[in-house]
Amino acid sequence: MYSVVVPVFNEEEVVVETYKRLTAVMQSMAEPYEIIFINDGSRDRSAEIIAGFCNSDKSIRLISFSRNFGHMAAISAGMEYASGDAIFIIDADLQDPPEIFPQMAQKWREGYHVVYGQRKKREGETLFKKASAKIFYRFIRRMTDVEMPVDTGEFRLIDKKVNEAVKKLPEKSRYIRGLVSWVGFKQTAIMYVRNERFAGQTKYPLRKMVAFAMDAVTAFSYKPLKAATTLGFLISIASFIYIAVILFQSTFTDTTVDGWASTMGVILFTQGITMMILGLMGEYIGRIYEELKNRPAYIVQETVGFGTGTNSTTPFA
Ligand code: UDP
Ligand code: MG
User: Fold this and answer.
1) Please, which of 37, 162, 239, 273 could form a disulfide with 158 given CB 3.0 to 4.6 Å?
2) Ligand 1, CB within 6 Å, residue ranges
3) Is pLDDT at 305 greater than 90 in this prediction?
4) CB 190 within 8 A of CB 115
5) Atom 8 in ligand 1: which residue has the minimum CA distance?
6) Pocket perturbation via mutation, ligand 1, pick of 8, 9, 151 by most ligand atoms within 8 A of CB
7) Which atom of ligand 1 is closest in space to residue 69's alpha carbon?
C-alpha cells in the first residue's frame, strides 16, 4: 500500500484540484493507497472540503490540528499516521508534479529507500524566492555536518523503514529533509521542474523563511558557534597588531595618534560583533529550552476517514 502525505494551510483554492490530480495518479499505479491531508489550522474552508472527500472516497483521510503548528509539524503528523509501505510527501499547491510518483515508485522497487525530487528549474516564482532558496540550500550545506542534497524540499518517496527510523527521532524541532538525510539508507534523486502554484499565495513569507533557515542550521550543526570562536580569535590578533602599531608610533615617531574616531570605531565594531554572537548563542539556548519543555510538536483536534480501508472504484464515477 502507498500513503500520500499532504500538508494543508489555507488552501481552499487548490485542494479540489490537488485531490483530483493525486487520485488520478494513485489510481494509475494499481496499488491500494491512502491520501492523508493534514489541516494545519486553516482558517478557510479547506477542512470542510477535505472532509467532503472523506465521505465519498474511502482512500481519503483528514487530520485536523487544533491550531497552526507549521509545515514540518503537519508532515510529521502525516508520517505518524501513514501506514503505507512507501510514503509520498507532497505540498498541496501542486508546485511539485504528482505525475512523477510512478517514476519514484519504480526507483523504490529497484531498492532505493528514499527517492527525493531535485529541482533542476523553478518556474513562476519571484526572482527573490529563487535566489533566497538557492542561497539557503548552499548555506545549509556548508553549515551542517549531514550530507544534504541541494535544491530538494520535502517532495519525495520514503520507504516504511525510513519512516519508522525518522519517527523514532525524539526532537520536537523537525526539519524533515534533514532528518531523512540523517537516518541514511539508500537515497537517490529524480530531477524535475518546479512549477508555479496552482492557485493562492505562498504560506512562507520572508519572516517564516528566515526562521526556517535558523531551525535547519541549529538543528544540525554548531558550526556557527565555532565560527564565533574563530572570529573572536581573528579580532584578537588584529587588535594586538593594531596596539603594536600605536605603541610604535607614540614611542618612535612624532605623529600624534588619532583618538576619538578610532576608539569609537573599534568599540562599535567589537560591540556589534559581541551582540551578534550573544544573539546566536541565544538562538541555541532558546531551542534547548524548547526541547527541554518536551511539548508535542502538534496537537490533533480530530481525524476523519481512518479505518475505512481503501477503495478500488473510481471516485469520479
Ligand atoms: N503549509 C502548512 N503550514 C504552514 C505553512 C504551509 O501546512 O504553516 C503547507 C502549505 O499549505 C503547502 C506547503 O506547506 O502545502 C508548502 O507551503 P507553500 O507552498 O506556501 O510554500 P512555498 O512553496 O512557497 O515555499
Ligand atoms: Mg508552494
Assistant:
1) 162
2) 7-9, 11, 40, 68, 70-71, 74, 91-93, 95, 202-204
3) no
4) yes
5) 70
6) 9
7) 8
Q: Pairing mode, if any, of strands 300-304 and 60-65? A: antiparallel
Tell me the whole-structure pTM to 2 decimals. Answer: 0.81
What is the Å distance from ligand 1's center to 263 Cα? Answer: 49
Residues in Cβ contact with 33 at an 8 Å cutoff, skipping those fewer than 6 apart = 1, 2, 3, 4, 26, 59, 84, 310
Ranked by mean pLDDT, which of 154-158, 263-267, 276-280 comes out on top?
Answer: 154-158
pLDDT over 50 at 313, yes or no? no
Ligand closest to Cα of 5 equals 1
Sheet holding 300-304, edge to edge: 187-194, 114-122, 156-159, 86-89, 2-8, 33-39, 60-65, 300-304
Predicted confidence band of residue 259 (pLDDT cuts 50, 70, 90): confident
Distance 70 CA to ligand 1 centre (A): 8
Tell me how far the alpha carbon of residue 112 is from its chain's centroid: 22
Q: Which atom of ligand 1 is nearest the CA belonging to 10?
A: 11
**Ligand with an atom nearest the CA of residue 7:** 1
Closest CA relative to residue 36, chosen from 66, 95, 76, 96: 76
